[in-house]
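Hey L., structure's done. Input below.
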Amino acid sequence: MVRLIPLLFVFLFLIQACGTAPKPRIEPEIPKEVEKEEPQEITIKKTARPPVIILLSEMIPAYQQVADELVRILPDNTIVVLLASEAAERETQRKLMRQEGYQQFVAIGLEAAQIAKSVAGAEDEVVFCQVFNHRLHNIAGPMSKGVGALPGGSELFKQWRSMSPGLKRVLVMTGSDLDEVISLATEQAKEQGIELVHRVVENDKVLLFTYKEMASAVDGIWLLPDNRILSGRTIRDVLAFSVRNGKQVAAFSDEIFRLGALLSVKSKSTEIAGKVVHRLDEAYQAKGFPGPELVLLEHASIKVNDVAAKRYNIKYIENKELTDNAEGVAE
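Output:
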């Protein structure tokens, strides 16, 4: 039976399962299909677990791929909602979600996470993902926990060092409040004989200035998707400076990759979705929401830019054990 949420941009999925929910919380009311001459009262159709509603901040590939994977893994009583762009329609969505009494929310992207947290009840679980800096926006809480947005560094540094044995020091710059992520990446780099040099900067101008000041002391730079300190112009300036000065760049998107970065390093939608579902299961089977505020990603999807590799006289052999998505890509 398809559940419709009017006035929304909605991907519709089936709510059709049976059984008894082990968690004594209110199930959403679902009207049975009846003949017109024999009206019946609205009844509750119980499922093996409460329906999960997946909220997407916007329709971009990185979000849609995670949503598609979640729909593949989760039961049929899963609904995907694309947040409306207009404030009035978004408020209507918010009100309807409160009325429906959903108990488990998956939020993909910052705006979805903010709305999910505002809609969820005191005992409802929210799992957010694809949110780069959740602490800045106060997304996490006793019943709101997440999956990291950054790919694991272990595969990145292993691949990078195997291609470029002379790689000794890599610079990474971020805004504040990313100590946990950087601490793990530092250990992963160290395992490959690489020193990860971290600097906290306030904006894109400081980032570019710091990079130029430190360039002679590092072999490359790892760009992270921190929009607090990156702009399109600064990214282009970083790439141009890197090419002129022989500094290798690991980037976070194919667009930057095509501008001359050596590596494209992205998270895997399959890993994100798997960890989201694991967190939903943990929360559903427990009292409260167990586990840490954020579960970090361990793996990465890596591409190598053939043109950039030739520029740096790098010869590499594709390593299928490191990633199932490694490929040479020309500018």
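The chain has ten helices and 14 strands. Residues 1-47, 319-331 have pLDDT under 50 and may be disordered.

-- N.
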